[in-house]
Amino acid sequence: MIKYFINIVAGAISLMKGLFVTFKNLFSKAVTVQYPTQKLQMTERYRGLVDLRIEKCIKCYMCVKICPTACLALAHKETAEKKKEFVYFKYNMELCCFCGLCDQVCPTQAIYLNQIYEIAVYGRDKLRDIDLLNTEKYGEWAHPTVK
Amino acid sequence: METIKENIHTEEFWVNMGPQHPSTHGVLYLEVKLSGETVVDLITHIGYLHRGIEKIAENRTYTQFIPFTDRLDYIAAMGNNLGYVLAVEKLMKMEVSDRAKYIRVIIAELQRVASHLVGITTFAQDLGAFATPLFYGFREREKIVELFDDICGNRLTYNYMRIGGLQFDLPKGADEKIKNIIKYMRPKIDDLESLFSSNAIFTARTKGVGALSKEKAVNYSVTGPNLRASGVKWDLRRDEPYLCYDKFDFDIPTGVNGDSWDRYKVRIEEMRQSLRIVEQAIGGLPEGDPTIKVGRIIKPEAGESYMRTEAPRGELGFYIVSDGSAYPYRMKIRSPSFSNLAVLSELAKGIKVADVVCVLGSLDIVMGDIDR
Amino acid sequence: MVSILTFIIMIAVGAAVLGFIAVSAMFLIWWERKVSAHIQTRYGPMRVGWHGVLQSVADVIKLLLKENIVPEDVDKPIWWLAPFFAVVPSVMVFVCIPFGNLFGIDLIARDLNIGILYIMALTSISVLGIFMAGWGSNNKYSLLGGMRSAAQIVSYEVPMIISMVTAVMFAGTLSMQKIVEAQRGMWFIFQPNMAVAFLIFVISATAEINRTPFDIPEAESELVAGFHTEYSGMKFAMFFLGEYTNLFIVSALAATLFLGGWQGPFLPPVLWFLIKTYGIITVLMWVRWTFPRVRVDQLMGFAWKVLTPIAFANLAVAGWILLK
Computed over its alpha carbons, how large is the radius of gyration of chain C? Predict the structure, then answer.
């Protein structure tokens, strides 16, 4: 009989403890931001879309070889003075897994991952054949930044 | 004279808890045979998230495979990275610098805290505490995930460990951030516990439900917090130490009955112990440069190795067979959630329908790990 | 024969009450979303109107425009009538709720001298709506949900009514307005066994209106979506409206019976009534967003083994106090 009452009172007290926790949180500051009027700043090492500093690329093909999903396609030709020139450098964003291995392996830091994270488009053809040699390729996407 | 036997026909009916689930554990398909409200039989169907990762491994070099390991147990990706990298290092008999070892321990333990936060709060959501514990758990986890974002650049698929070291060193100010995380997290774990542990409704729903005995747990090769909740004191960090876990001082929490409440309680205690380990590690972090360049093609000699680590969900093992070339010949991944899930059909017999969800939530499985 | 003036007054009062119910339900939906959001440290609706005040309007427009899907093989009359049985009794209760006292006129549609009995009878009818929805849907999961809900509501009525009877005993009358006036000296809740009755009333009322932690029939339960799976569009909106109206009713009852109704210093009585009612509503919402759900057998055990004996004991103690 006594145990019955003790159980009830103990149960009620335990429920009160839970209520206190939520009450505390009722008056604490919200942790969300009102996107898209407020946007969060990405970190320095954030891995967004693949981008290229064209003048630094030495066409060593290391990034193409190390990509796990084979989303980079590069071809070059040699000019008369034995200098390498681009034929094309294409990037298939549908296959890219944003791992950053190409960024890490590049000896001249020509290829890098920028900070664009809003990558919603209206047609999949915009994702497939991104020409890395075009400096305006990410013009439609939000806040391109140069690292 | 013939006696006519009357059959009183009660029907048992099959109910599908189909691949799309209200309780969010990924794509799991359960066929439950009910007799009234009690479960008579339970058949598990998996394979809805199979991506063929083990076969993919046969066509990728060892460094190229690291992003794929992120996608196994996507809630605790650092643990998978670590397990794989340790397996390859064991195959190549490679030594790792001390600073890399310490940083790996810190990262792995913080990942354990983050993963248990998800496990516990989704369990509470399955029981009906609608979203409030989930938001609190994810708010705490956000601090850890932001730290990982600072360190390696991504929040879910980190690709941070490299064979022989790490991708980057800790950035400037990471020390302070880690110490702040520890200071912030301890009262929050107490908050979560007082929201749940002593809560009479929660204990009434979880105590005694889905009790897993010691012998059954060992026979079904259940590992991780589920095994420790059944009373078996087995933790790979203590019994087969890897990295530098033998230098740190921590306890192994165990349960008594092996019911859902014990599984939840073990996870809360493990979070506290993980914070202890991180505190000790960050106090004594050695100097050095743990980064590894990735251009070199890694060619281990022919042979095989099996390395197991204590992932947040249990024992994660990588068995690699190498034939001397740059690509592995066979990679087999022993995933913890696969063995943990097998025990569900045993535990589910005889309990009520509402408790099936409770047991499933307390086992804390991730479909990415099961289906690979 | 009723005169034209009385008729016009009846229509006006009826329209005022219905208008209040509609506005109150829409406000409650917004309030619930805001309270739940701030408990979860986020913002809730922010875009539609200032801090999302017009969100309910947007939701009502959306529900009105939805397609009305009628599944095959439903039991047509029962299925069509179920939402009405869920909503109409709740609206009818509003006849007796004392909103306040404005310049000497009692703001109550009709102060029946059997007010409490009328309210108790009507709250018992709303279980029919749920049961009809469960049966008429021709869906074994809805039937399960409906039956569970019927069992839950019927069992929790006993403690609720007994605690209401305790208040009635202290007031000495069944009329709502006179109960409020009987608390002129001191609100009932300040007497110890009335405080116990208040707790029992609030807990059983939470179970009566199917809110967490007792929301097995309605929430995304373990297998199915409960008794209102097969309803869409305006019929679903009626169930929803019925639930929030019920929430308002039980809070208003708690405020009237235990917290002194519309009495209080300085502010006009209507405002006091609304403050007390919405205070209790906020407490109920706070409880909803904290606790997990109780299992069905534990629910029944709790009602019959804990609440009912305590309610009866409380009633006996109250009788003894009054006889002294």
Answer: 20
Q: State percent of chain B over pLDDT 90.
A: 6
Domain span at A115: 50-134
For chain A, say whether C46 makes contact (Cβ under 8 Å): yes
pTM confidence score: 0.86
**Could B63 and A101 be called an inter-chain contact, meaning their C-beta atoms sit closer than 8 Å?**
yes
Show which of residues 99-158 on chain C sit within 8 Å of chain B, judged by CB atoms: 140
Least confident of B3-12, C16-25, C61-70: B3-12
Task: Centre a 10 Å sphere on the Cβ of residue C194 and count the other Cβ atoms it contains.
Answer: 22
Determine the pLDDT at residue B368.
86
b/e C48-80 (16+ beta carbons within 10 angstroms → b): eeeebeebbeebbeebeeeeeeeeeebeeebbe
Is residue A14 assigned to a domain? no
Domain count, chain A: 1
The encoded tokens of residue A89 equal 């450098």
Question: Is the residue at A9 inside a domain?
Answer: no
Q: What is the CATH number of the domain that holds A112?
A: 3.30.70.3270
**B136 contact residues in A (CB cutoff 8 A):** 25
Fold of B13-371: Cytochrome-c3 Hydrogenase; chain B (1.10.645)
The contacts of residue A146 (CB under 8 Å, 6+ apart) are A114
Interface B–C counts its CB contacts (< 8 A) at 67
CA distances from B249 to A48, A69, B243, B281, C123 (A): 39, 42, 14, 10, 61
Any C CB within 8 A of B354 CB: yes
- Tell me what pLDDT residue B319 has: 92
